[in-house]
Structure formats: structure tokens, C-alpha cells
Amino acid sequence: MRKQALNLRVAAAVMGQGVAITTSAEAAHVINYQEVGADVIATGSGSLDVTDLKFVESDAAGTCSEIDPSQGFACVGPLSVTVDTYQGFAGPTSFGPGGIHVATSGSGDFTGIVPLAGNLHPPGGYTSGHSLFGGMTLANTNFQDLGLTPGTYVWSWGTGPDADTFTVQVGAPEPSTWALLLAGFGALGLVGWDRGTRKAEAIG
Q1: I need a labelling partner for 17 at 20 to 30 A (CA). Which of 83, 99, 116, 199 fits?
Q2: Domain that includes residue 143, residue range
Q3: Measured at the alpha carbon of residue 26, what is the angle toward residues 72 and 159, in degrees to the nearest 5?
Q4: Neighbours of 121 (CB within 10 A)
Q5: Domain count, the chain
Q6: CA separation, residue 92 to residues 9, 24, 113, 116, 168 (Å)
Q7: Cα 26 from chain centroid (whole Å)
Q8: pTM metric for this prediction
Q9: Chain centroid, CA 42 distance in Å
Q10: Average pLDDT of the segment spanning 47-68
Q11: Is the confidence at residue 200, as pLDDT, over 50?
Q12: Does residue 26 register a pLDDT over 70?
């Protein structure tokens, strides 16, 4: 009976951690840069609530052909695509000293941010809250070559239920990795607690 109760607590902890991570990931957009082999790979996922942002224009000449850490310019998705432009967020103006570097390839949904211009770019015709998934590859390079400073950089906007964020993570674990780590730590913590309790009961 005690073992069944422990298993239920562990399962609940894992499920709870998964729900927490999923909710967080769906409420914001994250671009994660990782060194993979000889390349730097950017992956973007999440969504954007643009309710409290100001719509500026839709631009058929949108592009995600490069990265510019010194100006905080980050994006994922096709190298040429129609994009919408929104303004009204606040946050850092850079995520490293590096200049412009041209991407090798890109795919999925376009999403980008240009802090110095004050522009946030979802794909053209984007509906607030819809999921976005995209990628970009910078071949034969690394963080040092690109001038990327490892860390987490967050831009935010809105209030109440319409508050949202756009995050650039350089070398940080992806959301799915965090979910597995947190679930594992939660399960280990409960197992340790249960063993401690049983030991105390045996001594008593």
C-alpha cells in the first residue's frame, strides 16, 4: 500500500512538472541557440500574445538571413517570408558583442526580434496565441565566432492576462530538457523523503 502511494505521488509530481513547463512554454516564445557539432543551431518555439502590442505593418520583404547579437537581432524560420511588425516591448538591446553573420538555412514559422528598432516580428497574418515552431542554422561556426554571450535574455510587454515575453537563450537547456530535469528532481525528492520517513518509523 505504501509503495502504491509513493508511485502515485511520483507520477503526480512528474505530471505536475510537465503541466507547469507546458503552460510556461505556450505563454511565451523562446529562441534557443546551441552549439551542435561544427554548427550553431537556433530553434524557436512557443507563441506570442500581441494584444497589448502596437501593429505597425505587414512586410513582404521580411528576412531571417542573419543574426546580429550586438543589436539583439534574433530570428528563426525561412530566409525570406512575409512578416508582421509590432512594437511596444522592453528589454535588453544586445546578447553579445558579435556583428552580423549570415545564416545557412532556415525553416518553419518565422519569428524574430530587433530591439534597437523596437520591432517584434511574427509571420504575416499571425493570429495572437497560435503556436510557432522554427529553426535556423549557422554552419561552421560557434558562440565565440558569432560573438554570442551565454545567458538568458528576456523582452516583455503587456499587463494581466495579455502579458507576454520573448526570450533568447544562448547555451541554455531547451524547455523539453528543463521538463525532464525538473520531473526527475521531483521524483528523486519524493523517493528520498519516503525513505527518510520509513527509516524514522523503523527507528521509532
Answers
A1: 199
A2: 28-173
A3: 70
A4: 24
A5: 1
A6: 41, 21, 11, 9, 10
A7: 10
A8: 0.73
A9: 10
A10: 87
A11: no
A12: no
> Which of these ranges, 14-28, 52-66, 113-127, 141-155, has the smallest mean pLDDT?
14-28
Distance CA 158, CA 34 (A): 29
- Is 130 within the bounds of a domain? yes
Mean pLDDT of 112-119: 93
Specify the pLDDT at position 15.
34
Kindly tell me if the per-residue pLDDT of 148 is higher than 90. Answer: yes
In a domain? residue 203: no
Going across the sheet that includes 80-87, the strands are: 54-63, 80-87, 119-121, 111-114, 74-76
- Amino acid residing at 114: V
Q: How far is CA 30 from CA 6, 26, 202, in A?
A: 35, 10, 49
DSSP 155: E
Is there a domain that residue 196 lies in? no
Which residues, in sequence order, are CB contacts of 27 under 8 Å at separation 6+?
A: 46, 47, 49, 164, 165
Give me 36's grid cell.
551542435
Q: Rounded to a whole number, what is the distance in angstroms from the first to the last CA of the chain?
A: 20
Q: How far is CA 195 from CA 136, 147, 159, in A?
A: 47, 48, 44
- Could you tell me the three cell numbers for 171? 547555451
Rounded Cα distance, 45 and 47, in Å = 7
